């Protein structure tokens, strides 16, 4: 008899666990007043840990501003290049939004939804000053990039276009390892989104330079759970509000303004709906 | 009544089949995956290339690293294992340092150290030459080899020392010279002792190569990560990688099984079929051995050599002097290395270490964000906490599974066996990823902090290893005790609780402490999912400072070492208290 009882209890527990508590993200966020944001902690200057051990960056500030305007508390969750998509893809999603210098791509949009573009970037190469006179020099160099990003695929394709049928592109585990590879000399150039490159180049001022043109457009979007239009609208409207009253410019200048460590002029505009 | 039925094999088989059917039914029809499988990703060329080919390339690299690092490990293990038995103290100290240092720090930290810090020890032009030669690949290969070598050295030393001293005395007194004793007595006996643990080290080495992905080597785990982050097919890529690792583990285990069969002592007229197969497979080695034996016999020394020719005499003195010179050279080299290490440590940027030590010890606690786990507790404190929780949990799992594994009833034995063998066949890195990205969120639909996900994964992983320890402990108890307990009317659980487990657990204590050390070191792998334990904290600190990787990684290695080493000393003391008679063979 006891065995039966225990089995029944176990079965009940399993059932209780499998009852999904998913609901439209907007309703859930508004009822709990907590918004969970997936952020990177090693992408200077988007999300990183500064020398006071605080988690800061452009994406962190944007997430905090969005949470503030929604009247919610922000809960920060670490994501990396490999997990940033799957965290909003699970059901229920592990995080309500992902701000992790992530390019809005069609193939990614098949799995999750994106907000309007909130940052404009493009992929470039970073090399030691003076080593690359002409872009064609890059073709036969050893290039470092990041695993789990499309940068590595783009870089390979670009080098093939430049005339190297078998380009040497290594995918390192994250930004740090990639930059270390350049700094120690195991690769001659690294390639990813230009602002990230600027962030790391600023670690050793004057030693590295961005070379060549943008090899791709990288419009960043906020990753959101698929098919959840109330929540996506809320984020889009909030983003436009942030732009409209000048807060965006303030956050932007804090990280990329002329006086910042990583100057990067703002050239585009956020899409505004009348 | 029910119990008696349950003891019959057909009933047990039926129960097993029914259980399997139930599980299959549940996952196929009742359970909502909310995930559509698409296995075609591996067979079709996608936007980012052919994923199946990518996996194959990864497998190729994994096999290459495994092969090379196994050879390196065996070489290092043999040299240092013998050196640990040396009477010449500097050699003994040096090899002891090697073994203790590499056994008590996590492989991940060692790889980081080789990869990030070591190149800075060389002048620039040498460094660039190194980088031109697949540096990451060799870093991972040699790193794995050196790491596994330290474990093999201990196994080889223990194997040689396990030979009873009486046998040696007997062989010397029957007129055998030392080389003969070595060939005829020590090595054959030691091999029989060494092969099974050595084999499991080969297996571990194969699994450990998965860590090479963290330094950018495109092996199987790397390819798997690439596949799921480019195609978002988490389940598919994890499953394929897991199956491949399981296949490789099974292959290695199979080879070991055959070797074991070959080494078993059997009477020639009652050979098992497997033994015949093994004999055929080992025929070339046997043949070589017999021929070598003939050569040795031909060159043997005649036993009654009273006078020595002058030539032989001078050769002998030259030999002695060479040995003496080599010893001096070794001491000089050792002194030089010590001096170099000393100056390197002296020139460390100690300010950087001191400024970051607190961060490495407890990360951001108590200044972390309130939404973070334990106010951001991490670093060494986080690692220790994780190790303590997971080892406590895995002890319970191990106890249940270990008992299940030794049970006569198939309904308990076969599931336990499957669990143990499957978990032990895949790398920990994969287990952690499975739990964090597939099992917990998709199957159990719970959303846990990365810390808990990693702790749960470690718990299940070490549960399988502790189960094997428990099984060993239980099987060590003399069967007479079980019979006596049964005769005095105790039930199975009473026998276990009152008689077997108390004794078995006491014997297992040193092994359990060893498991705790392994667990503590393996918390470093939680790095992969972003838990801020010691390794990740070091990574973050290094990310911030960038220019002092040597200092940071040395500090972290020392932190890991101090804790593991003192725990292992404690384990050794426990062992000595439990088995007082240890004999040291010297050579």
From TrEMBL, chain A:
Stretch forming the signal peptide: 1-22
Name of this chain's protein: ABC transporter glutamine-binding protein GlnH
Protein's organism: Pseudodesulfovibrio hydrargyri
One GO cellular component term noted in the UniProt record for this chain: outer membrane-bounded periplasmic space
Residue intervals of the Solute-binding protein family 3/N-terminal domain: 34-259
Gene expressing this chain: glnH_2
Domain of life of the source: Bacteria
Keyword NAD: no
GO biological process, one term: amino acid transport
Keywords: Signal, Transport
Family the UniProt entry places it in: Belongs to the bacterial solute-binding protein 3 family.
Any Pfam family the entry gives: SBP_bac_3
SUPFAM superfamilies from the UniProt entry: Periplasmic binding protein-like II
InterPro entries in alphabetical order: Bact_solute-bind_prot3, SBP_3_CS, Solute-binding_3/MltF_N
TrEMBL record, chain B:
InterPro entries: AA_ABC_transptr_permease_3TM (IPR010065), ArtM/GltK/GlnP/TcyL/YhdX-like (IPR043429), MetI-like (IPR000515), MetI-like_sf (IPR035906)
PROSITE patterns reported for this sequence: ABC_TM1
Keyword flag Phosphoprotein: no
Single GO cellular component term: ATP-binding cassette (ABC) transporter complex
One Pfam family it belongs to: BPD_transp_1
TM annotation in the entry: 12-31, 65-85, 135-156, 238-259, 329-353, 373-401, 422-444, 450-467, 508-532, 552-571
Family, per entry: Belongs to the binding-protein-dependent transport system permease family. HisMQ subfamily.
Protein's recorded name: Putative glutamine ABC transporter permease protein GlnM
Species of the source: Pseudodesulfovibrio hydrargyri
């Amino acid at each position: 008899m006891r065995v039966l009882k225990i089995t029944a209890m176990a079965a009940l527990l399993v059932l209780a666990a499998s009852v999904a508590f998913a609901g439209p993200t907007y309703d859930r966020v508004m009822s709990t007043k907590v918004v969970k944001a997936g952020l990177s902690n090693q992408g200077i200057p988007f999300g990183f840990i500064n020398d006071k051990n605080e988690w800061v960056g452009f994406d962190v500030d944007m997430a905090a501003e969005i949470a503030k305007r929604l009247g919610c508390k922000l809960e920060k969750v670490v994501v990396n290049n490999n997990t940033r998509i799957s965290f909003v893809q699970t059901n229920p999603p592990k995080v309500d939004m992902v701000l992790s210098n992530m390019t809005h791509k069609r193939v990614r949009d098949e799995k999750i939804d994106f907000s309007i573009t909130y940052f404009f970037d493009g992929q470039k190469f970073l090399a030691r000053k003076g080593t690359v006179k002409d872009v064609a020099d890059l073709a036969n160099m050893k290039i470092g990039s990041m695993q789990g990003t499309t940068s590595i695929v783009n870089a390979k394709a670009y080098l093939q276009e430049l005339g190297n049928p078998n380009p040497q592109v290594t995918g390192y585990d994250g930004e740090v390892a990639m930059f270390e590879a350049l700094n120690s000399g195991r690769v001659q150039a690294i390639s990813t989104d230009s602002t990230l490159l600027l962030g790391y180049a600023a670690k050793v001022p004057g030693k590295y330079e961005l070379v060549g043109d943008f090899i791709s457009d990288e419009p960043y979007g906020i990753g959101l759970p698929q098919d959840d239009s109330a929540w996506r609208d809320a984020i889009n409207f909030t983003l436009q509000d942030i732009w409209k009253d000048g807060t965006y410019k303030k956050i932007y200048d804090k990280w990329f303004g002329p006086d910042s460590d990583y100057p990067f002029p703002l050239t585009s505009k956020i899409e505004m709906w009348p | 009544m029910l119990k008696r039925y349950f003891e019959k094999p057909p009933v047990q088989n039926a129960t097993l089949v029914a259980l399997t059917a139930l599980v299959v039914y549940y996952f196929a029809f009742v359970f909502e995956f909310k995930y559509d499988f698409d296995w075609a990703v591996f067979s079709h060329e996608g936007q980012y290339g052919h994923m199946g080919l990518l996996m194959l390339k990864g497998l190729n690299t994994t096999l290459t690293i495994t092969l090379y690092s196994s050879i390196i490990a065996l070489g290092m293990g043999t040299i240092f294992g013998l050196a640990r038995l040396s009477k010449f103290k500097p050699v003994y100290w040096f090899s002891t340092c090697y073994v203790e240092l590499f056994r008590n720090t996590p492989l991940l930290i060692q790889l980081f150290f080789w990869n990030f810090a070591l190149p800075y020890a060389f002048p620039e032009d040498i460094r660039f030459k190194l980088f031109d030669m697949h540096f990451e690949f060799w870093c991972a290969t040699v790193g794995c080899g050196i790491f596994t070598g330290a474990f093999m050295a201990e196994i080889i030393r223990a194997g040689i020392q396990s030979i009873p001293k009486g046998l040696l005395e007997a062989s010397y007194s029957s007129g055998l010279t030392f080389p003969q004793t070595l060939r005829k007595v020590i090595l054959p006996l030691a091999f029989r002792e060494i092969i099974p643990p050595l084999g499991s080290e080969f297996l571990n080495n194969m699994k450990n190569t998965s860590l090479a992905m963290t330094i950018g080597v495109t092996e199987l785990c790397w390819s798997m990560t690439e596949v799921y982050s480019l195609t978002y097919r988490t389940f598919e890529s994890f499953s394929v990688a897991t199956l491949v690792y399981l296949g490789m583990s099974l292959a290695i285990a199979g080879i070991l099984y055959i070797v074991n069969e070959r080494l078993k002592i059997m009477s020639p007229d009652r050979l098992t079929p497997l033994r015949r197969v093994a004999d055929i497979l080992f025929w070339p080695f046997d043949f070589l051995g017999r021929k070598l034996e003939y050569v040795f016999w031909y060159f043997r020394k005649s036993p009654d050599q009273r006078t020595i020719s002058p030539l032989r005499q001078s050769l002998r003195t030259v030999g002695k002097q060479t040995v003496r010179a080599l010893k001096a050279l070794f001491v000089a080299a050792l002194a030089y290395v010590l001096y170099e290490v000393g100056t390197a440590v002296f020139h460390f940027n100690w300010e950087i270490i001191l400024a970051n030590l607190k961060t490495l010890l407890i990360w951001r606690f108590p200044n972390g964000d309130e939404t973070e786990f334990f106010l951001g507790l991490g670093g060494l404190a986080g690692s220790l906490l994780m190790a303590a929780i997971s080892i406590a949990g895995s002890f319970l799992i191990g106890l249940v599974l270990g008992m299940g594994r030794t049970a006569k009833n198939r309904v308990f034995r076969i599931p336990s066996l499957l669990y143990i063998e499957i978990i032990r066949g895949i790398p920990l890195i994969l287990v952690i990823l499975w739990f964090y990205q597939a099992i917990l969120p998709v199957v159990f639909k719970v959303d846990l902090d990365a810390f808990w996900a990693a702790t749960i994964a470690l718990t299940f992983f070490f549960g399988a290893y502790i189960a094997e320890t428990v099984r060993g402990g239980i099987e060590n108890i003399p069967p007479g005790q079980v019979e006596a307990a049964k005769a005095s009317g105790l039930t199975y659980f009473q026998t276990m609780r009152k008689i077997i487990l108390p004794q078995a657990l006491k014997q297992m204590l040193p092994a359990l402490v060893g498991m705790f050390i392994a667990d503590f070191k393996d918390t470093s792998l939680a790095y992969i999912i972003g838990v801020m334990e010691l390794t990740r904290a070091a990574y973050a600190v290094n990310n911030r400072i960038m220019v002092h990787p040597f200092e940071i990684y040395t500090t972290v290695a020392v932190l890991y070492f101090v804790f593991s080493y003192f725990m292992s000393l404690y384990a050794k003391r426990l062992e000595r208290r439990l088995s007082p008679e240890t004999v040291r063979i010297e050579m």
